[in-house]
Amino acid sequence: MLLVVEQFLNGLQFGLLLFLLAAGLTLVFGIMDLVNLAHGSLYMMGAYFAATFAAWTGSFLLGALMALGATLVLGIVLEMTALRHLYGRDHLDHVLATFGLILFFNEAVRLIWGPAGLALPLPAWLTVPVPILPGIHYPAYRLAIIVVALLVALLLYLGVMRTRIGMLIRAGASNREMIGALGINIKLLYTLVFGLGAALAGLAGLMQAPILTVQIGMGENILILAFVIIVIGGIGSIRGAFLAAIFVGMIDTLGRAFLPNLLRQVLSGAAASTAAPALSSMLIYLLMAIVLVVRPEGLFPANRR
Amino acid sequence: MKAFTVSKAATALMLAGLVLLPLYSQLSGNVFILTLFTRIVILALAAASLNLIMGFGGMMSFGHAAYLGIGGYAVGMLAQEGVGSGWIQFPVALAASATYALVIGALSLRTRGVYFIMITLAFAQMAYYVASGLARYGGDDGLTVYKRSDFSGLVNLGNRTQFYYLCLACLFAVLILIWRIVNSRFGLVVQGLRSNEQRMQAIGFPAKRYQLVCFVISGMMCGLAGALLANNTDFISPAVMYWTRSGDLMVMVILGGMGTLFGPVMGAVVFLLLEEFLSQITEYWALIMGPLLLLIVLFGRGGIMGALGRAGRG
Hints:
The complex is a heterodimer of chains A (305) and B (314). Chain A is built from eleven helices and two strands, in the order ααααββααααααα. The longest helix of chain A has 31 residues, at 2-32. Chain A has 305 residues and is mostly helical. Chain B is globular and about 55 Å long. Classes of the chains: A mainly alpha (305), B mainly alpha (314). Chains A and B meet through α4, α9 and α11 of A and α5, α10 and α12 of B. Chain B: It is found in: Cell membrane.
């Protein structure tokens, strides 16, 4: 029982983290029609910034806030210098150009921070286990991630659905020529959306940093997961990204936790323990393949003309 | 027709260079260059196979590295089980690649555009994880191929020069095949589907069937590259199938010039030589390579072949 609740929460936490990453990706994809493979690099940069600033200021929260700002700025600079020129190009050009950016960021990090990973230690008040149900404790930090991510998701929802900027973003997603013709500064809007996406990726990175090591290439595995999520959810749909992210986070976590035991019932011990990790890593891709075969445009296709 | 001759001259120069390379290696005593170019030729073969579906067929596969792995594992696993004959290993590699391509092609071709890019990526990642889970064949750490494929004395794969020429012969054979396919009725239909699928269907061509066949042919060609690659490195590991490898192959095709016969070969040569060259002057070669790719995309439409064509036009 304890294990089930704990793994369930872990799955939720991982799913929400993936949502932060996927939300930025799906916004950029849906509105600018830009395939940004370098999104994972922004996630990595968020983690590196946080580890550096936290060590520098001696405060986890301050470091996290500064890292958030730094990724936002980095995203805006990146959009204005490089990615802006890719709008309207072929998707293949995007893939190639942002693939180049990944190489650049990985190498830049190796040059600045060295090949060894960094650690981002948590302050004492975040490491205590919190009782969530009678007799069941859960790490405070993971709970904090769930709360922060849910809060951000709510803010994002309200921001997109209830504010003027959000209205423009939605309008841009459904017909970009038209809102340009109505006198909206599209360039500024695009830069803003990209910066927002970058900040969300940075937030995901810095929150994940204390759980995993901060290392080169950390953005690439999770980037693929984020892509899987937006494809399952339907490109451009934040709601789809949210549901798909939770779904993928759960399947991945629960699969890793319980599949080995399940397999052991059918297979011999050794065979099960080697097959289980591969099988649980495959589950998500299998899910995506099934979704795409059944619904080639994802579960919640954004409203396109 | 001057434009035609500039890119043609560059291509001829490159092909002559590839053919004469072992001679240079022998005369200068530089063994390393032969090893390097064997790898380049094999990956050029893989890039050419990707170009068949990407450049001519308009199917943007982001999971082509999976075939490198499948072809390689076919050789590696058979060698491990004591089947050393290349007459068995290579056909098995081709058959395995074809089967994989048939299954994932049938599923993936239901989708379009970015979704197609992503679903092929997802299947390649699945193949990557399957290979990581093969405990009997090294799992994550990979599998050492202790004995190269044995072609009963016809060619000795242990001999550097002979192996190089085998790879080159495979490359040329595949290029000729691609050229024949592209100019055949079948190839014209596939290219028509790239331009306008609806119209082709309206004329009465079963679009998916044509695309699937093209997809399978391309997969088999890349599987051949995989089988050669395992022999070249005497080693095969899941890392060969990692998604960045598929990215590398895409880069080679686009760098050289998508939809041209010799573009991918040129792309592979330039990409891998650049990688080698930059990694010799600095450990941080990717710091230069990355922005370089970005610049090529921004300013170099049509890749190297396109640039050569423009240079010819003046």
